[in-house]
């Protein structure tokens, strides 16, 4: 049975999309069929990590939401862009991008869309593409589509930085997730300074939220230097950031 995994952060700038793309790739390397959908429709960007250019995105999630096509028509096999079958060990990655055209983003902001279509679309993608996992890159904060994604998720990853504003916002998200009875909730602490004691930070966060921390990821110039041009965990598998990504993938895989 397919797992729906939502990746969320209360605030922007946490590295959510980067983590989503890298974890999805590591799960695909387990030989799984993986879909990644960008529901951050107001500020999409995960397609960049998979090397997708605007002129190659014939159809996007926006087209599905406006009734122009079936959801599976917006899915692109990006496995070859992240190393092909050898790197993915037979796994598959499909990307469902949102439009980056200014006019279409403006239309979403002005007119909105039927959020209920997202749920139908998620289920259709799993069925039509025979997915083992569907990763949902959500919009930061809590809005209608984010709440829907969280509510139907088998696994929720909440990305946070070791920052007071993130601590407060994460508390709100954790509370909402518990009220929605998400079966598996994991926290990911990203952009931790090298001067921190990572084990101690993990224990502090787990105590505060009474939730498991899947990984503490370092603030890394190496990761930043890639400038989202590729998936870092595939390019530099021995790096501490990449080890943390694999730990998150393992937690997602083990979740019941």
What fraction, in percent, of the residue positions are helical? 40-55%
How many distinct beta strands?
8
Runs in which pLDDT lies below 50 for 5 or more consecutive residues are: none
Listing every helix as H and every strand as E from the N terminus to the C terminus, the arrangement reads EHEHHEHEHHEHEHEHEHHH
Count of discrete domains? 1
CATH fourth-tier homologous superfamily: P-loop containing nucleotide triphosphate hydrolases
- Round the Cα radius of gyration to an integer and report it: 17 Å
- CATH topology name, in short, is Rossmann fold
Strand proportion: 15-25%
Q: Give the number of helices.
A: 12
How far is the N terminus from the C terminus?
11 Å
What's the architecture in CATH terms? 3-Layer(aba) Sandwich
Q: How would you state the average pLDDT, rounded? A: 92
Task: Characterise this structure.
The structure is a single chain. The chain is an alpha/beta fold. The protein has a single domain (3-254), classed as 3-Layer(aba) Sandwich (Rossmann fold). 43% of the residues lie in helices and 18% in strands. It has twelve helices and eight strands. The chain has an eight-stranded mixed beta sheet, sandwiched between helices. Helix 9 (198-209) links the parallel strand 7 (184-192) and strand 8. The longest helix is centred in the C-terminal third of the chain and has 16 residues, at 164-179. The chain is globular. The N and C termini lie close together (11 Å). The model has no long low-confidence stretch (mean pLDDT 92).
């Amino acid at each position: 049975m397919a797992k729906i995994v939502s990746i969320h952060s209360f605030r922007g700038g946490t590295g959510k999309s980067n983590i989503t793309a890298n974890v999805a790739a590591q799960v695909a390397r387990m030989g799984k069929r993986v879909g990644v959908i960008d529901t951050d429709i107001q500020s999409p960007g995960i397609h960049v990590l998979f090397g997708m250019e605007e002129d190659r995105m014939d159809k996007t999630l926006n087209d599905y939401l406006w009734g122009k096509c079936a959801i599976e028509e917006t899915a692109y096999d990006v496995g070859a862009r992240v190393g092909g079958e050898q790197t993915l060990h037979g796994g598959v990655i499909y990307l469902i991008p949102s439009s980056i055209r200014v006019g279409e983003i403006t239309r979403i902001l002005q007119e909105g869309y039927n959020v209920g279509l997202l749920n139908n679309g998620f289920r259709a993608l799993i069925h039509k593409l025979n997915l083992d996992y569907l990763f949902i890159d959500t919009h930061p904060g809590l809005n209608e589509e984010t709440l829907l994604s969280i509510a139907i998720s088998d696994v929720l990853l909440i990305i946070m930085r070791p920052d007071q504003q993130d601590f407060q916002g994460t508390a709100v998200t954790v509370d909402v997730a518990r009220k929605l009875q998400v079966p598996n909730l994991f926290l990911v602490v990203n952009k931790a300074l090298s001067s921190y004691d990572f084990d101690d930070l993990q224990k502090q966060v787990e105590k505060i939220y009474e939730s498991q921390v899947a990984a503490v990821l370092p603030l890394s110039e190496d990761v930043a230097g890639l400038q989202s041009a590729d998936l870092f965990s595939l390019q530099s598998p021995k790096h501490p950031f990449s080890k943390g990504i694999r730990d998150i993938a393992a937690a997602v895989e083990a979740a019941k």
